[in-house]
Amino acid sequence: MEKLILIGGEAGQGTSRTSTLLGKILSGMGYYVFNYRDYPSLIRGGHNFNVLKISDKPVYSHENSYDVIVALDQKTIDKHERGLNKGGFVLASKELKSKRLVGVDIKSMLKKLGVPPIFGNNILLGALFKTLGLPLPDLLKSLKEEFPKKADAIEKAVKEGHSAVKEKMKLSKPKQGKKYFLTGNEAVSAGAISAGLDIYLGYPMTPATPVLHFLASKQLKHNITVVQPENEIAVVNASLGANYAGAMSMVGTSGGGFALMVEALSLQGMSEVPLVVYLASRPAPSTGVPTYTGQGDLKFAVNAGHGEFPRVVVAPGDAKESFYRTMEALYLAYKYRVLSIILADKHLGESNYTFDSFDAPSVKPERSIIKPSANYKSYAITNTGVSPRAVPGEGPFVLASSYEHDDYGHTIEGPEWTVKMNDKRLKKKKYLGQEVSKLQPISVYGNGKNLIVSWGSTKGAIIDALNELKDFRFMQISYIVPFPAAKVKKEIEKSKDVVLVENNATGLLGQIITEQTGHFIDKKLLKYDARPFTCRDVVDGIKRVVK
Amino acid sequence: MKIQELNTKEEMTWCPGCPNNGILSAVKQAIVDLVDKGSIELKDVVDVTGIGCHAKIYDYLNVNGFYSIHGRVIPTAWGIKLANPQLTVIGFGGDGDTYAEGIGHFVHACRYNANVTMIVHNNQVFALTTGQATPTTEKGFKGKSTPLGVGEKPLNPIALALINNATFVARGFALDVKHLTNLIEQAIEHKGFGFIDVLQPCLIYHDHKTVSYFKQHTYKLEENNHDANSYEDALKKSLEWDYCIDGKTKIPIGVFYKIERPTYEEQWKLKKPLHIVERKVDWKKIISEFKLNE
Question: CB-based contact (8 Å) between B287 and chain A?
Answer without folding.
Answer: yes
